[in-house]
Protein backbone atom coordinates (compact mmCIF):
# COMPACT_ATOMS: atom_id res chain seq x y z
CA UNK A 1 0.00 0.00 0.00
CA UNK A 2 2.65 2.48 1.09
CA UNK A 3 6.19 1.90 -0.18
CA UNK A 4 7.64 5.41 0.11
CA UNK A 5 8.36 7.74 3.04
CA UNK A 6 5.68 10.33 3.81
CA UNK A 7 7.40 13.19 1.97
CA UNK A 8 7.62 11.19 -1.28
CA UNK A 9 3.91 10.34 -1.48
CA UNK A 10 1.46 12.36 -3.55
CA UNK A 11 -2.27 12.76 -3.91
CA UNK A 12 -3.78 10.51 -6.53
CA UNK A 13 -1.20 7.70 -6.27
CA UNK A 14 -2.94 4.39 -6.97
CA UNK A 15 -2.27 0.75 -6.28
CA UNK A 16 -4.01 -2.49 -7.26
CA UNK A 17 -3.35 -5.81 -5.58
CA UNK A 18 -3.30 -9.39 -6.77
CA UNK A 19 -6.40 -11.49 -6.18
CA UNK A 20 -7.29 -13.52 -3.10
CA UNK A 21 -10.07 -16.12 -3.01
CA UNK A 22 -12.12 -16.25 0.19
CA UNK A 23 -12.41 -19.85 1.37
CA UNK A 24 -14.58 -21.81 3.75
CA UNK A 25 -11.49 -22.28 5.91
CA UNK A 26 -11.13 -18.48 6.15
CA UNK A 27 -14.74 -18.14 7.29
CA UNK A 28 -14.61 -20.97 9.84
CA UNK A 29 -11.28 -19.77 11.26
CA UNK A 30 -12.64 -16.22 11.59
CA UNK A 31 -15.75 -17.59 13.35
CA UNK A 32 -13.50 -19.32 15.86
CA UNK A 33 -11.18 -16.35 16.30
CA UNK A 34 -13.94 -13.76 16.82
CA UNK A 35 -16.78 -15.86 18.23
CA UNK A 36 -18.99 -14.61 15.38
CA UNK A 37 -20.90 -17.82 14.68
CA UNK A 38 -23.95 -16.10 13.19
CA UNK A 39 -25.90 -18.56 11.08
CA UNK A 40 -25.48 -16.46 7.91
CA UNK A 41 -21.73 -17.23 8.14
CA UNK A 42 -21.65 -20.68 9.72
CA UNK A 43 -24.82 -22.58 8.77
CA UNK A 44 -25.18 -23.53 5.10
CA UNK A 45 -28.74 -24.83 5.52
CA UNK A 46 -29.95 -21.71 7.32
CA UNK A 47 -28.24 -19.51 4.73
CA UNK A 48 -30.09 -21.21 1.86
CA UNK A 49 -33.27 -19.57 3.21
CA UNK A 50 -31.65 -16.14 3.69
CA UNK A 51 -31.72 -13.09 1.42
CA UNK A 52 -28.53 -14.24 -0.32
CA UNK A 53 -29.26 -17.98 -0.57
CA UNK A 54 -25.80 -18.92 0.69
CA UNK A 55 -23.27 -18.18 3.42
CA UNK A 56 -21.79 -14.68 3.50
CA UNK A 57 -18.16 -13.95 4.42
CA UNK A 58 -17.96 -11.80 7.56
CA UNK A 59 -17.52 -8.09 6.79
CA UNK A 60 -14.71 -7.85 9.33
CA UNK A 61 -12.84 -10.61 7.54
CA UNK A 62 -13.30 -8.94 4.17
CA UNK A 63 -11.93 -5.68 5.63
CA UNK A 64 -8.81 -7.18 7.22
CA UNK A 65 -7.96 -9.32 4.20
CA UNK A 66 -8.48 -6.52 1.68
CA UNK A 67 -6.41 -3.89 3.50
CA UNK A 68 -3.57 -6.41 3.84
CA UNK A 69 -3.63 -7.36 0.13
CA UNK A 70 -1.79 -4.17 -0.78
CA UNK A 71 1.04 -4.97 1.60
CA UNK A 72 2.85 -2.90 4.20
CA UNK A 73 6.48 -1.85 4.48
CA UNK A 74 7.16 -2.09 8.22
CA UNK A 75 10.11 0.27 7.90
CA UNK A 76 7.63 3.00 6.84
CA UNK A 77 4.31 2.22 8.51
CA UNK A 78 4.28 3.34 12.14
CA UNK A 79 0.66 2.47 12.92
CA UNK A 80 -2.87 1.95 11.67
CA UNK A 81 -4.44 5.37 12.25
CA UNK A 82 -8.12 4.76 11.54
CA UNK A 83 -10.91 3.94 9.15
CA UNK A 84 -13.87 6.11 8.19
CA UNK A 85 -16.95 5.63 6.05
CA UNK A 86 -16.56 1.84 5.97
CA UNK A 87 -19.35 0.39 3.85
CA UNK A 88 -20.10 -3.14 2.68
CA UNK A 89 -21.80 -2.46 -0.65
CA UNK A 90 -22.33 -6.04 -1.81
CA UNK A 91 -22.00 -9.39 -0.04
CA UNK A 92 -18.87 -11.48 -0.39
CA UNK A 93 -19.42 -15.22 -0.69
CA UNK A 94 -17.19 -18.22 -0.10
CA UNK A 95 -15.34 -18.73 -3.38
CA UNK A 96 -15.31 -15.05 -4.36
CA UNK A 97 -11.95 -13.66 -5.42
CA UNK A 98 -11.21 -10.14 -4.21
CA UNK A 99 -8.56 -7.62 -5.08
CA UNK A 100 -7.89 -4.27 -3.48
CA UNK A 101 -7.50 -0.86 -5.05
CA UNK A 102 -6.32 2.25 -3.24
CA UNK A 103 -5.86 5.90 -4.08
CA UNK A 104 -4.22 8.48 -1.82
CA UNK A 105 -6.86 11.12 -1.10
CA UNK A 106 -5.25 13.05 1.77
CA UNK A 107 -1.77 13.74 3.14
CA UNK A 108 -1.51 15.47 6.51
CA UNK A 109 1.56 16.36 8.60
CA UNK A 110 1.61 14.74 12.03
CA UNK A 111 4.61 16.06 13.89
CA UNK A 112 8.25 16.18 12.99
CA UNK A 113 8.70 12.49 12.14
CA UNK A 114 5.36 11.39 10.67
CA UNK A 115 2.43 12.12 8.43
CA UNK A 116 -1.04 10.64 8.08
CA UNK A 117 -1.86 9.12 4.72
CA UNK A 118 -5.51 8.51 3.91
CA UNK A 119 -6.45 6.30 0.99
CA UNK A 120 -9.77 5.42 -0.56
CA UNK A 121 -9.69 1.64 -0.27
CA UNK A 122 -12.04 -0.53 -2.30
CA UNK A 123 -12.49 -4.28 -2.58
CA UNK A 124 -13.58 -5.58 -5.96
CA UNK A 125 -14.74 -9.12 -6.69
CA UNK A 126 -14.31 -11.25 -9.81
CA UNK A 127 -17.58 -9.84 -11.20
CA UNK A 128 -16.05 -6.32 -11.01
CA UNK A 129 -18.47 -5.37 -8.21
CA UNK A 130 -17.25 -3.07 -5.45
CA UNK A 131 -18.01 -4.98 -2.25
CA UNK A 132 -16.27 -2.69 0.26
CA UNK A 133 -15.32 0.96 0.35
CA UNK A 134 -13.68 3.05 3.07
CA UNK A 135 -11.17 5.75 3.87
CA UNK A 136 -8.17 3.99 5.41
CA UNK A 137 -5.50 5.98 7.25
CA UNK A 138 -1.97 5.07 8.29
CA UNK A 139 0.68 6.91 10.28
CA UNK A 140 3.75 6.93 8.01
CA UNK A 141 7.36 7.73 8.87
CA UNK A 142 9.22 10.50 7.06
CA UNK A 143 12.33 8.30 7.14
CA UNK A 144 12.34 4.49 7.09
CA UNK A 145 13.58 2.63 10.13
CA UNK A 146 16.77 0.77 9.46
CA UNK A 147 16.84 -2.99 10.06
From TrEMBL:
The lineage of its organism: Bacteria, Pseudomonadati, Pseudomonadota, Betaproteobacteria, Burkholderiales. InterPro entries: HotDog_dom_sf, MaoC-like_dom, MCH/BMMD. This is Dehydratase. Residues 14-121 form the MaoC-like domain. It comes from the Bacteria.
Amino acid sequence: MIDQPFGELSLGQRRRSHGRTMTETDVVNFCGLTGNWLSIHADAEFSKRSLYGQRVVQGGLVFVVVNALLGFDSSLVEAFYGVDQLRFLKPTFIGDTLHAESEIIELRDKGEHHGVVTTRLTAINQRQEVVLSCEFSLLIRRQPLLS
